[in-house]
Each structure stands twice: as structure tokens, then as C-alpha cells.
């Protein structure tokens, strides 16, 4: 491979290739950290010596077991790895019960609603709310192994619902509240869910989100699979209830606050989370109980150097993996205090995050580059108007952070004293993989630095040799680790081919290209497959193409990404219609129609930013769509590709003009 590979998204992050600033941890940070370079060097040595013993040691130290395990890693069914398989435990017990003896009155959740009202929920209260609700689910017949879909706003009860499922050993699948009824129905059907948990309504940025209505539409499309819909009354909004629906408050009214945890085996599935891959059908990423929790908890403690008085705030929604590992599970297992926020960073104005950091004295703040970029655009001077002195550590996740946004985050939000942990990981890895460890590693803007202890991550060329410094290659994980995806829900074949392709000799292939610099720091360059990253959300180009061609007017569609200043990447769709190619106002009208259609098919996050019409799509004589050419056109770049094999060169002009 060459220094900048021909992957889909590499070119958009070219600025990191020239970045050479280095920020050692500040004296202020070092004065209060409990972890330093020696701690991690020692941990790394331990892991290098015996990986199995390393993780087994952590699993015994950090998790509470009902029955201790006798074996750490089991590779006999590779790549279906197992960890701690003969041990039993309960994830909710590990997140709640075990803190009751030591810190029942510590605040677990500071739940701030869209309208700014806040609720403070202690570990004792959270435990009681989880038990009440788990007993309610039990009364509906939910037992270990049943699938429960959670389609909720980002409120404390979303966490309660997840924890209640974990308490019963029921497998939850959280669906982000922005997904359409069709996407929701697909997930209900694939998971064969018995119960759906929702709210009558949600609010984001002052706007109501009609969750219950969407659930009704989805359940109607779901082959009578769903037996019950539990509805949390977010407010008094009038709601049509059907025979299968039950209010959350009615379900819990007669229950007790005592719900013994159901002990499950370490490998029992804790949840399924659907994510986009390179085919049209989302993948049901299945995670384990013990290994997953260990990864979430241990990384939380290392990366965020968690201390007893910290107030942690991860702004991710529980509909994504970040909201699972660093809202619903990791921080609770660690006994931390955290903020849970229903709303958006720009409502009522672009100082919402800064105002909340000041109000709740947040010390660790973890957000996505898209949020940072949009807040720079809408009010770069706003952080200075707030007291952000409680912050001691900042984090970034979900997409590459460009050095300019990093520097602003560091200076303007962090006051030059807070390290930034830029964490690379995935839905499939369950927990953070690459990150600078604050206090131990000097940071470089745009680099995710190094693997956490116990992880063997490499960048390989096509001959499977580690790439030379500054040479791009394929990011792989060489050895199994506890929090890794166990399989794809009811699709073990796809699991094998998607993540362990033969040509990589049993290694986990992440789907990203990356490079290392002369100091060994990792730099993520972008996806190598047909997956886009829009505002930190994964979208499969084929998923969007399938949505477009589902419209009776559309003959063919090809979707690519182009760099976007705020969202990282934006979706561009090239479409041919069954009828005439529209121009002028008719084209504008058609663009509106198709954008709305994709919104209905998948959800608003997948709506193309740009749609172009042509009489045909550019194809080679063998009929393959020329995607690299489309990417150049989407970016407005000069066409440098060889178009001699193009069947119909005249359409390039049409595509460029839109
Ligand atoms: O391309 C990488 C990008 O997001 C992908 C994973 O997406 P998802 O499973 O939705 O999980 C997002 C939250 C963990 C990766 O394959 N990605 C994630 N974090 C970073 C990143 N790219 C660059 N830098 C990051 N810190």
C-alpha cells in the first residue's frame, strides 16, 4: 500500500498526516492523577507475558461472580472465542447491588431533561427502580434469553430498562429513537422480540418525538411477534393505548423493590446492537455478559482515570454502543456519578453543554467531534462565558477528530490543562481499544495514540507485514480480548466472513485503514469498506441505496460520502429515475421527496445531504458502478481516474451538474 491508500475516506483526513504538535500531560493534571506511565508499562508487561492470566486477573479483581470461573480464554471454537465461560454472574448486580453496602446515597445519575429540569438518582434509588421494573417485566412473562427492544428517549428510565433486562438475563436491543418505524420493525423481526419498551413521547431541542406512534407502526409490521408494549409516560401527552400496551407506572405499581438477580453464564448474551455493515442488512452485534462488562469497566477506569468525586458525562445516546458502554454499564459498574442528558447541544442555544458542565460540575466530558465542530461554528466564544474549571479530562469518540477542532477543544474548553483522550473503538469491540492514557502519554491532535493494555492491535500491508511509519494499512486486532463481539445474531457465517476474512489469517479486521508515525502513535484514516461515518454514526451505503430504490420512481441509486466540515462525512446519492431526468424546480421537488423517503425508510440520520440525477450511472463495460469516480464528482474534484472503460462518458457532465 502507498502512504495514502485508495480507501473511501482517507483523503478527507489528510490534515492529520502533517500534524506534529505534541502535548504532554500538564503539571496540574499530573498532580492529581492516580495512573502514570509506570503503571501502564507494568500492565503491558504483564499482558505480554500471559494474556489469559492478565485478563483473568482483571476479571477476578473487578467483577463480582456468583460462581468463579476456572478458565479464562477458550479458543477451541475460534473465531467464536469465549472468556470465563464456566463462571456465573449478573451484570445488573455488578452495576448496582454491590455498591449498596458502600455508597447507597451516592448519586448515580444526574438526569437532565430537554427543558433543563434535573433529577438526582442515588445508587439505592436506581437499584429500587430497576428492581421494580424488572419485576414488572417478569410479570409479563419475560425470562432469561428473551429479546426486549428498547426504543426510548435518552432519559434515566432508558438506563433503568436496560439494567432491568440485564437483571433478568433478558437480551436487550436498544434502537436509537431517531430510527424509522421500518428500521424498528426490521430489528423487532430479526431479534424476534417479545416486548418493546418505549415512551409516549420524547423531546429533543424542544421538539416532540412521537416514539409511541412509531412503535405502533413498527409493531403492525412485525408479524404479531410483540406480545407487550410498555409505555413510559414522559408527560401528559394524549396517547392511544391498545390491548397489548401497558403503562410503565401500572406495570410497576404492584411490584416490590426486591428482585433477585438471575445468575447467568459469563457468555450469556447481554445485548444485541444493530449496526451498519457493507451490505443492505444491518448486523446484529451480539455481546457477552462478563467479557463485555469487564471491557467497559476496565477501560472506563483506565481511560478516564476515574476518581471517587468525579462527575462523568458521556453525551452519547444509549441507542449507540458508546451509550451502552459508557453510560448504561461502565460508569455504573465503577460506582461513578454521571450526567444523563435528554436533549441536544444546541438547545436552547449553543452554550447548553458549557452551561451544564458548570451547573453539574462535570470533571470528565466525553463527546463526539461533530458536536465540537458544530459548537465551534455556532459560538466559539461561548465556553469562555462559563466556569469550566471543574473539568480535568476531555474525551472524543466516534470519528476522526481534525486537529483544528482538537486544539479548540483543548484550549477553549479544557483551558489547556485537560488531556484529551481520543478513543478509537467500534460497536463490535464493545470497549475502547486505542487511546492516549491521560497522565501516561503525551497527546498528538488527531491521534488515538496506543492500544490499551491487553490488546494487540496492528496495521498490516497486503502481505500481512506491519506497515512502515506513515504508511497506511489495514487495522487488525491480532489476539482475542474479553469485550469483543461474540457473533452476529443468528448469522455466524456472516460473523466469520465480515470480521475474520481468510486472507488475514484469523485476525479480527476492523474495517478501518490507519497508519503509525515514527513514535508508534496510531492515526485512523477512515473506513476501508462501504460504510460512511456521518456525525459519528455508521451508515452503510448499500442500506441507503436499498432505501432509495424502494421508491417506485427510482430505477437505480449509488451512494458515496464526501467530506463535511461539521458532520465529518455527508451522504451524496446519485439517482436515475424510471421516468425522465428532472431538471429545475421539478428536480428540487424530487430531491425533497427522496430525502423524506429515506428518512421514512431508515431514519433522519440517513437522509442524503445531496442528490444528483442522471440518465444512467457510470459503469464499466462489465457493469460495475464506478464508485471512485462518483466520490470525485461528489467532492467536486477534477476527474483523474481512467474513464476509458466507462460505457457512457457523456453522463459525467450530467452528474457534475446535478
Ligand atoms: O471508523 C471508525 C470510527 O467509527 C467506526 C465505528 O463505529 P461504531 O461502531 O458506530 O462505533 C462508534 C463509537 C465507538 C470505526 O470503525 N471511529 C470510532 N472512533 C474513532 C473513529 N475514527 C477515528 N477516531 C476515533 N476516535
Give the DSSP E fraction (strand runs of 2 or more residues).
15-25%
Shape: globular
The helix-and-strand class reads: alpha/beta
Distance between the termini: 34 Å
Number of helices: 19
In CATH, the architecture of the domain at 535-657 is: 2-Layer Sandwich
The average pLDDT is 94
DSSP E strands, number = 32
Q: Please mark out the parts with pLDDT under 50 across 5 or more consecutive residues, or reply none.
A: 1-12
Bound molecules: adenosine-5'-monophosphate-propyl ester
GO biological process, one term: acetyl-CoA biosynthetic process from acetate
EC number: 6.2.1.1
Keywords: Acetylation, ATP-binding, Ligase, Magnesium, Metal-binding, Nucleotide-binding
Binding site for CoA: 204-207, 322, 535
State the main characteristics:
658 residues; alpha/beta; GMP Synthetase, Chain A, domain 3; 7-stranded mixed beta sheet; 5-stranded parallel beta sheet; 19 helices; 32 strands; globular; binds adenosine-5'-monophosphate-propyl ester; AMP binding; nucleotide-binding
Molecular structure report:
By secondary structure, the protein is of the alpha/beta class. It has a domain at 535-657: 2-Layer Sandwich (GMP Synthetase, Chain A, domain 3), CATH 3.30.300. A hairpin with a 5-residue loop joins β26 (508-516) and β27 (522-527). The radius of gyration is 24 Å and the shape is globular. Adenosine-5'-monophosphate-propyl ester (PRX) binds at residues 275, 321-322, 396-400, 422-427, 448, 510-512, 524, 527, 533, 538.
